[in-house]
Write a structure and sequence with these properties.
With 462 residues, the chain is an all-alpha fold. It has one domain. Helices cover 79% and strands 0% of the residues. It contains 17 helices and no strands.
Length: 462
């Protein structure tokens, strides 16, 4: 059979790097657009006339709750999609479709429960997360509307992974592009023209996520999909739920610990720096989201390729995927670190032009991103563990960096040597060095060496 007749969704054929890039490019574009959902909101809100800094801070206070929603999306979506890739690599289409159907049911159930709980408890939660009387109204206005679209958020993000797992990265990209373009167009209309302010930003996001969710469901139930959603596969199987949750727990813990870090950072900064530095952390989180997009795209693009080849027994190709992902990740994160160190100002001005916030944010940014290249090792190690279904290792290293290192340091460092707010920002680079090195070293010992004991295949080259 000639190359022109090869199945483009068969990841065991062709150069590994090309398969990864073919998925990673549209997935990166999709993630860029996905981040625009929230980042565009912050850019507009951060430049509202009158109380832009307070409004931006209020928006930042909702991050932990939005992160919790993302965590449950990861629990099921990031757990189901790699298992689907492995089953498809084995040629077990029926099992792959059952995994996809069970994942949909779990996402729907979790979405309904999260909506009710968060709406009922939003006021005490927001004050617990560092809100003040000045910033709470903005957080409440945004969150009250955003939560109504929880199911749309979870469906569009959680099920989109199954489009990518089947090799349809462009269609997966369109899922996000459709919603983001709508959000970009609706934001200024609702925020400024209709004078809805923070509420307008939330409404634009909900409507946009609804469009994305409709697109995902239409594709996965349509004729173009290799694997299709069918009602009979939505009946929960305890065996499959256990496997999905087991593998997705890594992504869940990573998101939950991110949320806990945000809570601890906000409450600590409220003590040492008040609302100004809570606003600075909102900007830093936004910059990190933008800078991290390409490396996220590469590792997410590599996971279906590595998982497929692992399921197909092509172990040398899995090693080639790990090697390519690691090299590209280190090169990119070094370049990103240099850019942040040399020109921090534009990153801050993108979100707010308040002189006090810009001054405080510039110094904080350079501390927060010091040694950022070590994050690429964390991403590469986690991608390998998740792709190969090694849930316990993935879970441990998710916990190590955030829960075991960042959170205790965020509480401890501000009290040492008068570091204050700088101690909060210093916790991140310390965790990058320790967590990144530990995760990558463990991956090399537990995954790389084991795969190397297998016989290389004819098509294993990078």
């Amino acid at each position: 059979m000639t190359d022109t007749k090869r199945d483009p969704n068969d990841f065991s054929q062709g150069p590994v790097w090309r398969n990864i890039v073919r998925l990673a490019l549209p997935m990166t574009v999709a993630q860029v657009v996905q981040v625009l959902y929230n980042v565009v909101d912050r850019i507009y809100i951060g430049h509202l006339p009158g109380a832009s800094a307070l409004a931006l801070t209020g928006l930042g206070l909702t991050f932990p709750i939005l992160t919790i929603i993302t965590a449950f999306t990861n629990l099921f979506g990031m757990g189901g999609a790699p298992l689907c890739s492995i089953a498809r690599g084995r040629g077990d289409t029926q099992e792959a479709e059952r995994i996809m159907g069970n994942t949909l049911t779990l996402l729907l159930g979790a979405g309904v429960i999260l909506t009710g709980v968060c709406l009922a408890l939003k006021q005490p939660i927001l004050y617990l997360f560092g809100a003040s009387d000045a910033t709470y109204p903005y957080a409440d206005q945004y969150l009250s509307i955003y939560l109504l679209g929880t199911i749309f958020v979870m469906l569009s993000l959680g099920m989109n992974g199954f489009i990518n797992a089947q090799g349809f990265a462009r269609q997966g990209m369109l899922t996000i592009v459709l919603g983001a373009v709508a959000n970009i167009l609706l934001d200024p209309l609702f925020i400024f023209v209709l004078d809805m302010g923070v509420r307008g930003a939330a409404l634009a996001t909900v409507l946009s996520q609804m469009l994305s969710a409709i697109w995902v469901m239409r594709f996965l139930t349509g004729k173009k999909a290799v694997l299709r959603l069918q009602r009979r596969n939505m009946i929960l199987s305890l065996r499959l739920v256990g496997r999905i949750v087991g593998l997705g727990t890594s992504g869940f813990i990573m998101a939950v610990t991110n949320g806990l870090c945000q809570i601890v950072c906000n409450t600590t900064l409220q003590i040492y720096g008040r609302d100004l530095y809570v606003g600075v952390m909102t900007v830093l989180n936004s910059v990190r989201e933008i800078i991290g997009l390409p490396i996220n795209g590469i590792t997410n693009g590599a996971q279906p390729v590595m998982g497929y080849n692992y399921g197909a027994g092509q172990y040398a190709r899995v090693r080639a995927g790990i090697k390519f992902t690691s090299i590209i990740g280190v090169c990119y994160t070094v370049a990103a670190w240099v850019a942040v160190m040399l020109i921090p100002g534009p990153f801050i001005h993108l979100f707010n032009s308040n002189p006090a916030l810009v001054e405080a944010g510039t110094a904080a940014l350079q501390i927060y991103f010091f040694g950022y290249f070590m994050m690429s090792l964390q991403f590469a190690g986690q991608a390998a563990f998740v792709a190969l279904g090694m849930s316990r290792q993935a879970i441990f290293f998710s916990l190590l960096r955030k829960a075991i290192i960042v959170i205790p340091l965020t509480i401890l460092l501000p009290r040492l040597g008068g570091l204050g707010v700088n101690g909060v920002f210093l916790a991140e680079p310390i965790s990058n060095f320790i967590g990144g090195a530990a995760c990558f070293t463990a991956m090399m010992l537990l995954v790389w060496r084991r795969l190397g004991k297998q016989l290389p295949t004819a098509s294993s080259s990078l």
